[in-house]
Amino acid sequence: MLEKTPLRARLVTSSALVVALGLGLGACSSGETSTSTSDSPSQSASPSPSQSGYPIEFKSTLRSVQSRVNDVGTKGNQTYGVNVLEGSTEINDVYVKVRMLGTVDYTDNSGTIGGFLELIWQDGTILGFRQDGTATYEKSSKETLFDAKLETVNGSGKAVGTTGTGTLTGTRPGSLGASVKIEVALDLVNAPELITGDESSRGVPTPSKSYSATIAP
How far is residue 212's CA from residue 81's CA, in Å, rounded to a whole number? Predict the structure, then answer.
C-alpha cells in the first residue's frame, strides 16, 4: 500500500523543482554569453606602440676646425681622411653645439661620407649619431651636395637611452675644408624633455617590433 504524501510536502517539492530548473536555465544562459565573449576580437590583443617618435629639425653652418686628409693616386684625384667641423643651432629654444666628425673617401671630389654627428648641450648632455651617405660634386655650380642617413648611437646625461633615425642634407661651395650648410631631420624615441619640450616623451618604448593579433573564428 502506497503511503500518501502530505499536500504541504508536495508543494515544497514542486517549488524546489521550479527553482532548480530556473537556476539551470540561468546557468546555461550565462555559459552561452561567456562563450560569445571569448570569440569576440580583443582590442588589447594587438599592442600599438607609436610607429614614430618626436620630430626634431634644425639647420646649422659648420666650419672646419681640424682636417687630416690626403690626396693620393696617379693624378692626385683621390682624397681620404677625417674632417672635424663645428657649428651651433637651437633645439627647443636651447643653444646646442653641432659637431661633425666626418670621414671622406672621394674620387674626383665625389664619394662616400661616414663618421659621426654630435649634438652637445651646455649641461654636458651629448647625443651621437652615425652618419652614412654620399657627397656629389656639381661641376656647373662648383658645389658639393651631401645626403646622409643618421642612426642614433646613444646619449649621455639626460639623453641616455634615446634612440631614433634621421637624415642630413647639405651643401658646400668650393673645395674640401670650406663651410658646410646642413639641414637635419630627426625622429627620436625616448628623448628627454630637454630635446622635445614635452615631459611625456621620456619613457616611450622603442617601436622596434611589429605586432599582430590572432582572432578566433
Answer: 47
